[in-house]
Write a structure and sequence with these properties.
mainly beta; Thrombin, subunit H; six-stranded antiparallel barrel; disulfide bond; serine-type endopeptidase activity; Ser/Thr_Proteases_Immune/Dev
Amino acid sequence: MADSNSCQGTTLITSFSYHNLTKRVSGGSDIQEIKLWPWQALITYNPSVWPYSDSFCGGIIIGKTKVLTAYHCTIKSLQTHEVFQNEDVIITVGVLNKTSAYESTRAVYSVKAIYRLSVISTNRDVSIIELTEEINFTEHVRPICLPMKSHDSHPTPGTECIVSGYGWTSSSGPSANILRQGTVQIVSWDECRNHFTFISSDTMCTSSGEEGIGSCPNDSGGPLACRRNNGQWVVFGIVGGGNCAMTNGYNYYSNVSSNLAWIKFPSN
């Protein structure tokens, strides 16, 4: 069982193969067990302040009381930057089916503090949510590993990684009820920059390829997870935005390695 100072690469997946996975979150297949991606969190909002039930985000469990997500998942508007207060945000873990309140793996946590990076860009769309109590780690709920140090072992172009979330299943919706997964391929920053001229340096990108592989609305804040040769899973990217289910499109992610110092010791 994981503790507050360790991550478990997911040794539960003994016969993992990228090629056994459906190729996209949008239009892809449901996962069968939440323990496949036990670090996935669901971020929703108090309906008294945010009455949009179809608006939610993903999150990434990185510690007993820490959930990593996107900055834009902790604000009400990118134009005004009006923030959600601690009591406005709800963190749920162990969720396979987000419409079911009776899953034995599910647990809901309140928020103690929200930390947001002060300078925002496509590579700095990062927030840390601190919980009021510790998460109970089990085989179904546990943290993913962070990179060992800044700029260490970045996935190179062509590397296959996993994106997961409860977001749209096609370019026009609706969102998935059951957690979905997709295999995506890392592309170079230069290639991505040719498509998104606004992305900042160090932003990570994946190509959607001919099958439209990629994340969609409501997947924001979720993990781009890559598997090291030793079988350990590491979160290298935080879902930001891009082309939803577009053939030969791209998605971009905040780079965890380049923001690692702040992620480990967040402040406002």
